[in-house]
What does this fold into?
Amino acid sequence: MNRVVLTFVLAAVCGPVVSAQQALRPRAEVVAAINSAFRASWAAEKVTRAAPATDTEFLRRLYLDLAGRIPAVSEVRQFRADDSDDRRERVVEELLDSPASVRHFTTVWRNALLPQAASQPQFRGLIPGFEAWLWKHLSEGSRYNTIVRDIITADLNLTNANALASTTSPDAFFVVRELKPESLAAGTARAFLGVRLDCAQCHDHPFDKWSQKQFWNMAAFYSGFSRPEDTEDDPATMMAVVEDQESRSIKVPSTGETVPAVFLTGIKPDWSESDSRSPRDVLADWIVSDENPYFAKMAVNRMWAAFFGRGIVDPVDDFSEANPPAHPKVLNILADDFVASGYDMQRLVRIIAATEVYQLSSHQSHASQEDPSHFARAALRGLTPEQLFDSLAEAIGFYQPFRADNPFVIDTDSPRARFLELFRNSAESPLDRETTILQALAMMNGQFVGNATDLERSRTLRAVVEFPKMTDEQKLETLFFATLSREPSAAERERFEKYLKTGGATGKKNEALADIFWVLLNTSEFLLNH
Amino acid sequence: MKLTRRHFAQYSGLSLLGASASGWLAPLAQAAENQTHRKCILLWMSGGPSQMETFDPKPGEENGGPTKAIETSVPGVKISEHLPEVAKVMQHLAPIRSMSTKEGDHTRATYYLHTGYLPQGPIRYPTVGSFLSKELIDKKCDLPSFVSVNPFRAFSPAAYGPGFLGPSWSPLVVNSQMTGGEENPDVSFEVQNLQRTGSVTEKQADARLQLLTSLEHDFLATRPDGPGRSHLESYQQAVRMMKSQAVGAFNLEKEDDALRDAYGRNPFGQGCLLARRLIESGVSFVEVNLSGPDGAGNGPGWDTHQDNFDAVASLCGVLDPAYATLINDLEQRGLLRDTLVVWMGEFGRTPIINENTGRDHWPKSWSTVLAGAGVKTGQAYGSTTKDGMDIKDDPMTVQNLMATVCGALGISHESTNLSNVGRPIPLSDHGSEPVEQLLS
It folds into this structure.
């Protein structure tokens, strides 16, 4: 294979990446190195970290981050009954092994790679095929570099628009970028390298080192795509797109100059050695190369952000000199290990979940914990619409129907689809998540939560109300487990038991239970990750 | 533990019931006591409307295309033939024909014209509706101070958010629903889920809110993060709306049929009528988006790279009656003198017509329009050369436009807000000045 020699343009920011030959260290050693890097940073910044998370605090967070939903009542009880020393590690393993985790990470990566698909209705039809493809890779434990290479070098099947949604393929990555060389270049750089080239399309990047020419050099790798009339914006005409696999240069529209395909590092590919490889193959080789200064760092940063709500570099996909990593050493440790492990995403998850920072409480005990870039306390994070609905479904005992032939197809009128639409969020980061007034109204008065807290219709509530041998205390505790995944505090117990005893506003105990269930479902503690 | 106490104090008046401006509504309480009763309506033309087919026609010029100019109620000021009703209310308008902004990318320009600042670095600038409603808020009003009707946010979500001002200043977003079927198409803006569900009594609902308040108090007191604050504030505003008669403003059926027809029975026309009703009810800022020939907001309709002339004509078919009726309606109710109406998009269109009979992005010389409040109307400000390629006189920057908007609303454009990076940021950027010639 043609090995490209790279210049380390980002070395000053990120430091060098080790070679793949470096031996894989035991996981515990990597975790310890990360822990000590944070401790050193806190000491230097005079930060007092928060207390360790309690078992139930950890469990709820882990379920949301690995399974995309809160734990079931039985799962909370089981975990609380477990007093073994390695119970936290074991639940990580159980969840990594579960279909729920494959599904959750399918959503996480789809959102990262096709951000347009959620926000722009015309692309939603592409989600099923892409998710099915991702699901296959993730369930088989595919390595990250394999997945990325398969996307960039995809053998595109664009002749049948209707087939796209049900075809298990990564084609959607190209379709949402309209098969335009410039959009594909910007999208590739941003998704896999964390480099924002977008502005350099029209002019030299105002805040970074990217020039307009470098942008088009990158676009030239995708220059084979052309359409009969290259002015149509309408995706329907994409079916007319043809690809010339020999094309290695592109015309810059504003200057008329034709520029060759060149890597962002300034190195030109050696075409004589590339044999029969297409420009996209050559680009993919460079992108996923162990020596690429951006590739592994971007991936671990994105994974980190999935567990903390913000990246070590934040925004997640904005690696630049103006935006240095908050903890460069940690980023390097993670990236080095990721490369050494052969881009093993499950190992990366195990490492992150085992760190001290991931297992801190969200309870703020010192002012120095307020700045989220210290990671000295678990910040409140917004749930994705998917996490929110799936947690709500778990809490109320709602079983979601799906299409047997393709569970990825979205029924736009299902309760889940309606929830996803209403709770779709425009915030760039989960730490900026905003609840809208309409969302609050839907939670308080909407039919879905209304049914869930209705004594006749709610599965969870009825189970609690009708269970013959449960005391009031146990009923209350069950509702807390079902929603907040923890037992009530002493003060809460007192307050709520009193409400139960008097029958609350209606004087009826069952109605009072419904009231309490409604209250728990509407708390920020239920509706946020923490 | 000092901090913990402070946060307890911050939330000590926390209540979802007695939801007046006390206690945990600290951000609202901090808002400046408004010196002015003025309001603002922004008519946003997503995609970038063609100046030559709207307020700066160039008949007889090659670049002007087939578009004719017509006389208006102001002698000497001519506008496009596509806006005959607007022409009749020109005495209440002040078109600015000399916008010059240097940003031709939808995402960046949408952010620029919505915030007055270019996107740069970590500062999250608030959208104009957020920072102006913070200045203009009427605390007696039970509705959110900023309402956004059918926004098309895909170009730049950040351009539509409260940025560093925080969630208290987020808009209430209302989307139109088509009703009446094909026979009798109509538009409504009902806010969903304002009524309690099923058999829940008011007493029961209040008891629930009381319990909820106690849990929120415990949890958020030591977790002072944005998402938690946003959760509380939106719940509080939602409860306030549920308990108020003011939501009747969203019910357009209370309006006279003839007036509803005059606005146009489409999402934009009825959105303009809704804007007037909300302004009357005490809402400070209403943004109404027009981005499709059906009056709805699902795409960048003004982005007329192809077939510009027909596309703009049909968009104007929606714009013209709505805009003109809004001005007349405000005027007749005595509201125009305190209500600023801004018409704009993110940029203009190329004077040179492209090979697809379209016009492309053009930030160099284009038009916006101000009306009402403190604006000196009945004049056109600035002008372009005969071919439309350059500004002839009085170039207008985004910053000066924002400063002028502030001036027309009786607000100091130099007022500052503390940004997320701890630096005070003026409403319009340093060095900007209101244009005196546009202010009465």
